[in-house]
Automatic annotation (TrEMBL):
PANTHER family in alphabetical order: CARBOXYLESTERASE (PTHR11559)
Pfam family, one: COesterase
Domain Carboxylesterase type B, residue spans: 27-555
SUPFAM superfamilies the record matches: alpha/beta-Hydrolases
Gene3D superfamilies assigned to the protein according to its UniProt record, in alphabetical order: alpha/beta hydrolase
Alphabetical keyword list: Disulfide bond, Glycoprotein, Hydrolase, Serine esterase, Signal
Protein name: Carboxylic ester hydrolase
Top-rank taxon, per record: Eukaryota
UniProt-listed Enzyme Commission number(s): 3.1.1.-
Enzyme class: hydrolase
GO molecular function: carboxylic ester hydrolase activity
First and last residue of the signal peptide: 1-15
InterPro entries: AB_hydrolase_fold, CarbesteraseB, Carboxylesterase_B_AS, Type-B_Carboxylest/Lipase
Length: 572
């Protein structure tokens, strides 16, 4: 059995290289506002030259007294900034090549701007925010190589942002209001607006795209006042902020736990931060895994928060996203949003294979502790009468009121798929579509069902469990832990199709290229609450209606929308 990344490689060793015939060259770009930067050349799948600039700083290193503060825009440099090699990732547990000097981004392009270029010759830009539960992964090319996407006419930017307590510590007061990792992303988008034209990218045609935690990020930028005017389209893949809980207004308990693990005082925020600032990045990063309660659960530990109003501090999130959307207070841009067929359902592979060999330890433990474990795994309130009711109802609906076993584990897998990812995407699409009724702004909803030979969750014989979380990324990016799809690979059709649709959307706001024979007679009907339309992206492209409708109706029944007029905490 192999599960390579339902948390997207957070348990993998660092890979040292990517698939490329990389050439060093005198590839230098001058950024008028910053200085000169040198890059290297990578070959695309179709042997195009990709001009690669990796590890470019967009923010000053958030070290010392800046550790728990909003990023400072990068200052101009003298000489030539070397971006021909990979930059460091933000601190994570047990990783090589990381540093707090991690506010870096990678830019990939096939044509630099020239003095004769007009705005009409600039190419659309995709800015990608990586997955990893807000505590892992990075924008490095070992995870997200450009070799597939850059066969299309696009400029790709992948972004690092601070993670876990270094990016999301929040005490709900003026000293640690929270959301630093998301504010890092804003700073990266501001950098793109000022500098991307020098790489042949159009700052007036920017699509933000993210996966899992990156999908949460995309949907949060859609409601954040800080992100206004920084993007023009959005792609939220397998992640949206509209899950079954409201976001917290602080994470004091987690902040205190972080301090206590490192032997720091917790009597005041000030004393706690003074002590945490004195710790090394490694000391802090090595504690991240201690925040899980069991087997990588909960999926999200450090969450975005609704921030207090603090003088002279930008506020990324002033209210609950679910309220801001219903009040129409969000950035109304064309949107692609969707899920994979099995999503986090691959989490059941290990326990199922063990049970088939006679070891039912995991089944037995989960069954005996269902009312404790289910709220942790499926992200709803804990230790309340309501929590007990929810746990019982989910067991009734998904498991037919029976213990988990070999005869009903698929229901457990569906519960993972819906509780961690599916319901939040469904709810976001419905809420946004309500607000788009009076506009012609489209929402394109999808389910990715194409099954290739590789997957992030496989049985012990190497066969994929299904199309799980992150599997669709294999056809947009070269992920160095998986095979490189050459011209003879059966997956090439999926690569060509995925990259063409996503780039056409970035260029035009519509995903189906009308000028390509392979998309002849294909229509992707925009989603509305009434038509429930979605595109199944499988061996063929097929329009359908009502994605997992019975299951989503169940979640809507259990987790109704909160009253807009409910009393709200005063965060001023």
């Amino acid at each position: 059995m192999k599960i390579v990344g339902l948390l997207f490689f957070c348990v993998l060793a660092f890979a040292e290289d990517t698939k490329s015939d990389e050439k060093q060259s005198e590839l230098i770009v001058e950024l008028p506002l910053l200085g000169k930067v040198s890059g290297s050349i990578i070959k695309s799948r179709l042997n195009k030259d990709i001009l690669s600039f990796r590890g470019v700083r967009y923010g000053e290193p958030p070290t010392g007294q800046q550790r728990f503060k909003q990023a400072i825009p990068v200052k101009p440099w003298t000489g030539i900034f070397n971006a021909s090699e990979e930059g460091p990732s933000c601190p994570r547990p047990d990783r090589k090549f990381q540093s707090e000097d991690c506010l870096r981004l990678n830019v990939y392009t096939t044509k630099l701007a020239s003095s004769s270029d007009s705005s009409s010759t600039l190419r659309p830009v995709i800015v990608f925010f990586h997955p990893g539960g807000f505590y892992g992964v990075s924008g490095q090319s070992i995870y997200f190589g450009p070799q597939y996407l850059l066969d299309e006419e696009v400029v790709l930017v992948t972004v690092n942002y601070r993670l876990a307590s270094l990016g999301f510590l929040s005490t709900g007061d003026s000293l640690a209001p929270g959301n630093l990792g998301l504010k890092d992303q804003v700073e990266a988008l501001r950098w793109v607006q000022k500098n991307i034209n020098n790489f042949g990218g159009d700052p007036n045609c920017v699509t933000i795209m993210g996966y899992s935690a990156g999908g949460w990020s995309v949907t949060l930028h859609m409601v954040s006042p800080m992100s206004k005017g920084l993007f023009h389209r959005a792609i939220a893949m397998s992640g949206a902020v509209t899950y079954q809980n409201l976001l917290p207004t602080d994470q004091k308990d987690l902040a205190k736990k972080q301090a206590e693990i490192l032997g720091c005082p917790t009597d005041t925020t000030g004393n706690m931060l003074i002590c945490l600032n004195a710790k090394t990045e490694k000391e802090i990063a090595d504690t991240f895994s201690q925040f899980f309660e069991r087997h990588g659960d909960p999926i999200f530990v450090w969450l975005p928060v609704v921030e207090p109003e603090v003088r002279d501090v930008e506020r990324f999130l002033p209210a609950q996203p679910i309220d801001l959307i219903r009040e129409g207070k969000f950035h109304k841009v064309p949107l692609i949003i969707g899920i994979t067929k099995e999503e986090f359902g691959g989490a059941v592979v290990g326990p199922v294979e063990a049970a088939r060999k006679g070891d039912t330890t995991e089944f037995d433990f989960v069954n005996a502790n269902w009312t404790t474990i289910a709220p942790i795994s499926f992200l709803y309130e804990r230790n309340t009468a309501k929590s007990l009711e929810i746990s019982a109802e989910l067991k009734r609906f998904y498991l037919h009121d029976k213990p988990i076993g070999l005869d009903n584990y698929e229901g457990w897998a569906h519960l993972y798929a819906d509780g961690v990812i599916g319901f939040s995407a469904h709810r976001f699409a419905k809420l946004v579509s309500d607000q788009y009724k009076t506009t012609k702004i489209p929402i394109y909803y999808y389910e990715f069902t194409y099954q290739g030979r590789s997957s992030h969750a496989t049985w012990s014989d190497g066969k994929p469990y299904g199309v799980v979380h992150h599997d669709d990324l294999l056809y947009l990016f070269y992920v160095s832990f998986f095979p490189y799809f050459d011209a003879e690979a059966p997956e090439i059709k999926a690569v060509k199709r995925s990259t063409a649709m996503w780039v056409n959307f970035a260029k035009t706001g519509e995903p189906i290229p009308k000028d390509r024979d392979e998309f002849k007679n294909i229509t992707w009907t925009p989603f509305t609450k009434e038509n429930k339309a979605y595109l199944e992206i499988g061996n063929e492209l097929i329009m359908k209606s009502g994605l997992n409708e019975d299951r989503m109706n169940e979640w809507e029944k259990i987790f109704p929308l909160p009253n807009l007029n409910r009393p709200k905490k005063n965060l001023k």
